Structures are given as structure tokens and as C-alpha cells.
Amino acid sequence: MPDGPCSTDPCPRCFAPHRRKVVAFIEANRPIHFVIPAFPAKSRNRRKVLGRVPDMAEVVAIESLQSFCDQVSAIYPPGAVITICSDGHVFSDALGIPDGHVDEYGAHLRRIIGATGGGSIGMYGLSDAMPKMSWDERRRTLLDEYSDGIDAIRDAVRTQEPMRRMFNGIHRFMVEDNSAIEPELSANQCRIRSKRTAYEVVQRSQAWSGLVSHMFPDAVRLSIHPQSDHSDKIGMHLLRTHDSWLTPWHGVVLDDGAGFTLVKRAYAESVGARLVWRHSRPSHFVHDLGVLDAEATIAGGEQ
């Protein structure tokens, strides 16, 4: 996220990458089209999430996206539409998530979108871009056509602050996940393995971003990752959280009586929150955080 003057007073350069696209939709009297690469699959780290299928975190996130479109329509009658460019199959083999689990997650997510009922949200995935291929063939084709290679990613991480920030955020997540999933690893082994995987994830993220730009060149780009000043993407939280890198597929919803907050499962359990089940599956946590101080609340997003 911006941490300079633009964080409180955006300058013309902050709006420039998006203004041209928005104006084009308005002049054509068409819904403003947004795309957001997101909703891949649940993390395998059960210290963060409740299971492998969507839960209340995804429900609240989808409702938030639909509400965003509704608010646009309140001031611009043609409204807005959002295409979720689901990237689960882009990363699944690198993260050790079976492609079948990604399919299961996507099927549940489509039902959530349908149940929301707003009609403004669609989905697009790797199989839409590359039909009639196996998943491994699609991933190889994606990297062949849209990636400059791992060496280029390493150079960018060393020389470009936005790339370094992205890599560091993903590397932190990889360390957390690998230490929980493979506790037999030493701290050094965990860091080395996580670093290698983080480079793969960044490479694939960049390749998927390139494909999305190619397929949707006129759309306004949204991102679930923090963005630097003057970026061609608009960073956004899908629901309230104290950790800018936390996502619905890496966390759980905690209902504190004042609203929903995204935290990690381990934190919700550590404060004695009660697990709520819906439709015979764990859904979210409920707890009165009024007894906790602000520092404990913030720590919930950072554990």
C-alpha cells in the first residue's frame, strides 16, 4: 500500500492508469468492467483456515464485491461488473494442492456467487483461457508465453521495490505454511524451501497477470495485494483485516459483535472464540473482543 503522501492525498499519477479506462466505459455508457485475480483455493495450513472449501470468509468477500458494484450503480446507472480471475490452478502444483481440490473450491464459490444474487460477478480461469489441455500443459503454456523466467524474477526482486515487497509478503506466508505443514523441517530448511516456492509463486503470479491483461485489456485492474503509488492495479481488502496480506483463503472470519474481521484460525482459537457451523460445515468464529485491548486485536492479523 502507499506509505507516502499519496496514501492520504492521491496525486494525478495515482489515478492516471485507471482514469482512461473508466472514462472509456462511461463514454460508451457500458458497465465499468473490473478484473481481480483472486480466490485460488484454501491454504493447506490448518492454523490459518477451517478446511479446504469456502466458508464465511468467502461469503463476506463476495458480498463485499457485489456491494462495491451496487455502490457504483448508485452514481453511475450502467453500474459495474467484476470478473474474478481464479488462479488456483496456476499455483496448485507448486503449493501441493491437488487440482481436484481447486475444482471443489471453485464449484462452492460459484454457488456462493449465485446465492448472493446481485448478478455483477463472474469467474474466469486457466481452463477458459486454454481449453482442451491438461492442467500441466496449461501451466507450462502459461509460463512459456507469459513469463520471463525465474532469473528475471530474481533480478526484479533485487532491483524493484514493489516486486521485493510482493516477494517478501509471499515468502512470509510460505514460511508460515511450511512450518505448520511440515514441522519436521528445521528453521533453515523451511526458509530455503519457502524461498524457492515464493519465487515460483511470484513467477506464476506475474504470468497470470500478463494473461489477464492480454485477455481483458480494457478492464480496470484490482488486486488483493498491497500496491505501490502510481500502480496500474488498485489494491483492495475483501473484508476488514489488520494484515494487508491476509486473504479469505488464508484466514477465517471472526465476528466480534461490531463486525466481521479476517484473522488466522490460530488467533481466533487463542482468544477463546466459539466456532460456528453452517450447512454441516465449520463457518466462522464468534467472540466478544470488547475484553481485549487494541494490541491483541492487531496481533490477530499478524500471527
From TrEMBL:
Name the UniProt record assigns to this protein: Isocyanide synthase family protein
Family annotation (Pfam families): DIT1_PvcA
Taxonomic lineage: Bacteria, Bacillati, Actinomycetota, Actinomycetes, Mycobacteriales
PANTHER family: SPORE WALL MATURATION PROTEIN DIT1 (PTHR37285)
